[in-house]
Amino acid sequence: MSNHLDSSPLSIHDMTVAYQRRPVLWDIDYSAPSGKLIAIVGPNGAGKSTLIKAVLQLIPAASGDVVFFGKPYREQASRIGYVPQRTSVDWDFPIDALGVVAMGLYRKIGWFRPVTKKYRLQALAALERVGLAEFASRQISQLSGGQQQRVFLARALVQDADLYLMDEPFAGVDAATERAIVDLLRELRAAGKTALVVHHDLQTVAEYFDEVLLLNMRLIASGPVEQVFTTENLRRTYGGKLALLDQVGYRMSHK
Amino acid sequence: MFTEFFQRLSVWEGIDTWIAVTGALAAMACALPGTWLLLRRQSLLGDALSHAVLPGIVLAYLGVSWMEEIGWLTAPATGSGAARVAEGMSLVARRQLALFAGAALSGVFAAVLSEVIQRWGRVERSAALGVVFTSMFALGLLLIRLFADRAHLDPGCVLYGNLEATAFNRLGDTTIPQAVIVNGGMLLVNALLTLLFFKELRLSTFDPDLAAAQGMRPSLISVALMSVTAATVVAAFESVGAILVIAMLIIPAATARLLSDRLSTILLLGIVVAAVGSVLGHVMAITLPAMICSRLGMPQVEDASTAGMMTVAACSCFLLAVFASPRHGMARAWYERWRLKLRIVREDLLGSLFRREEAASSQPQAANQQATIGDPARLSWFQRLARQSLIRQGLVESGSHGDSLTESGTAAAQDLVRSHRLWESYMARHFALPNARLHDTAEKVEHFLGPELQAELAAELDQPTTDPHGKVIPTPPERL
To answer: Which residues of chain A lie closer than 8 angstroms to B199, CB-CB?
Structure first.
């Protein structure tokens, strides 16, 4: 697509996502600036997680196209780190923290090959960056919620990606973990990386992030926090869904 | 009783070994996909598959005999020696391949169909599975009835299997049962697949979203796992039947999961439990029923179905693991609870001795009233046990005026009472409760504070020296 900026880490063009014909995201058009920390903000059911999953092709988009650094996902997958919601996996799974972090390297390791010492050392280094090196051989079921979240972050870090997509990394974590995540995000930005983070706490948006993307089934506004994160825009984001959008969506899924 | 056991076991012959080996190989082959299904929380899917593959098996069986009839495939010729073994092998391979293909196809069909029913029928997953696998099993039984003259399949055999008979179905001139080759082959294939795709299976089981984001196609892995499970089920089917194959898929895996938290160990242990359960099952089948029934006045009973006993044996292994597993077992939990209870009672004894001595030093007459606290006769047996351990460790010494604290006992008691009174002070600050109500909660909390929380509490309360009742908060000597 010629109208996409090659320099943008993530460029979404007119993307609509539907669950069983019912659109949950309408006509999203967005280009993420490079080297920024970007918050994705919106009420429950606004489609924040859906946006991330759709750009990663985990759920199909009904229409539109998405490019990363000017190319489709498949060609750029190694440059993109994904941190799913902590609650999306079974934390009783028999594996230790280091094992989970090493999962971030599976693509690099390739099919049929085992996780060798070289990769385990890389995973350990990533755990060290989130302050959990001494928990490397701890069962994940025995970690606290905040520690589990940091293990997930380490798993994305070990990929050494250029763009990170994080789904609610701050949900239900302790103060120490929140601090650690913020430090980590700043470290990433200092290294020229970009991060899109689904974020729930409006109080801290301005403190933690450079840019914001306001979402409620459609893109309400996007840009630098000081310009876009205004009372008026927040009212438009949180002041109820557009009644007509909802009704039309309902008809599309039931006719 | 033991002599009778060994006497009955002495009838063990070569064929018994083959029966045990066949059962063990079938169970071991099932244990591997069974573990993955368990970890995916899809054990019920194994159950469903073991039934849903039936129409596929019948159709494949009919297909093969039809092809043999019209001459596309040649039935085994009569020869001798190595030639006949090779001939037999290729026949087994052909027939088994057709059965595998049929089973895998109908297994995947069942998985897809239940997905569709779940989506369009708006029912939950297990209900959709229930609809599909019972219907497909019924269809399979119907096909057997319809083509009974062609397919030499027996509905009873489909349900319960016939391990004893399959052991006699030998390969050519050898004594090796065909089922050993088939199930052993399946075990090899499953072991190889697990080794090759360990990483991929692990990631797509733990976090399918990340697997997809890494370009791994978890849905494809899922379908592959279903197909392999279906093929494994079919291999075991003939020997142990549709019902018991479920036990082989689930029980060894569930047992192994209780015994370890390491995935590779769990996979290995599953295989070991499967093997042990099977061999033990056959031993039990030829000994126990006769031993029990002859005592009940039924001497005509000689043995029981080996497959059934194998399940009983595997289930016993499972129950043993539930009880005695080092990390998740009930015995361990009971022991931990008992130790905690002992510690609390010990600490309470120390605390009451400390308070008595404290009261005695300030009000000598009150001490006489309380002198009986340390009186062993008024303690419960558990408290006596706690008291004995305190005396043994030199924290308490018994004298003519009852028990008293030693120097180290005083230090330990001060630590505990410090926790108690700090907590009372903390509650007095943050809870709107009368002072008299503070004691009961503090009595519970005192056992769980530990040095870090104690230090944190003291810091938050600006190092208080007295509690809300005006009593001195002691400072243990080593912390001065």
So the answer is: 106, 109, 113-115
CA distance A232 to A226: 13
Q: Identify all chain B residues contacting A155, using CB atoms and an 8 Å cutoff.
A: 210
- Residue A53 Cα distances to A8, A50, A140, B59, B139, angstroms: 19, 5, 24, 42, 40
Shortest Cα distance, chain B CAs vs residue A234, angstroms: 31
Q: Are A74 and A56 in contact (CB under 8 A)?
A: no
Does A77 sit within 8 Å of B214, measured CB to CB?
Answer: yes
Per-residue pLDDT of chain B (480 residues; tens, 9 = 90+): 778 888 878 878 888 889 899 999 999 999 999 999 999 988 888 888 888 888 888 888 888 878 777 766 665 555 556 666 676 667 767 777 788 888 888 888 888 888 888 878 778 888 888 888 899 989 988 888 888 666 566 767 777 777 777 777 777 777 888 888 889 999 999 999 999 999 999 999 999 999 998 888 888 898 889 889 988 988 887 778 877 888 999 999 999 999 999 999 999 999 999 999 999 998 988 888 777 877 777 777 666 778 888 889 999 999 999 998 887 888 989 999 999 999 999 999 898 888 888 887 776 655 454 444 556 667 788 888 888 889 898 888 887 777 888 888 888 888 889 989 988 888 888 888 777 778 888 888 888 888 888 888 888 888 888 888 888 888 866 654
From the list B196, B207, B215, which residue is nearest A112 (CB)?
B196
CB A103 to CB B196 under 8 A? no
Which phi and psi (to 5°) does residue A223 adopt? 150, -170
What are the E-state strand segments in B358-469?
Answer: 396-399, 402-405
Which residue in A74, A80, A93 is closest to B206 by CB distance? A93
Task: Name which of B176, B179, B190 is nearest B157 in CA terms.
Answer: B179
Could you tell me which residues of chain A have a Cβ less than 8 Å from any Cβ in chain B?
53, 56-58, 74, 77, 80, 82, 84, 88-90, 93-95, 99-100, 103, 106-107, 109, 111-115, 139, 141, 155
Q: In chain B, what are the domains?
A: 2-325 (1.10.3470.10), 334-479 (1.10.10.10)
CA separation (Å) from B24 to B248, B275, B279? 10, 5, 7
| Strand bridging mode A163-166 / A80-83 | parallel
Could you tell me whether strands B402-405 and B396-399 are parallel, antiparallel, or unpaired per DSSP bridges? antiparallel
What pTM does this model have? 0.82
- DSSP assignment of A214-247, as one string? EESSSEEEEEEHHHH--HHHHHHHHS---HHHHH
ipTM over 0.85: yes
Q: Which residue of B has its CA nearest to A140?
A: B261
Distance from CA of A231 to the nearest CA of B (A): 35
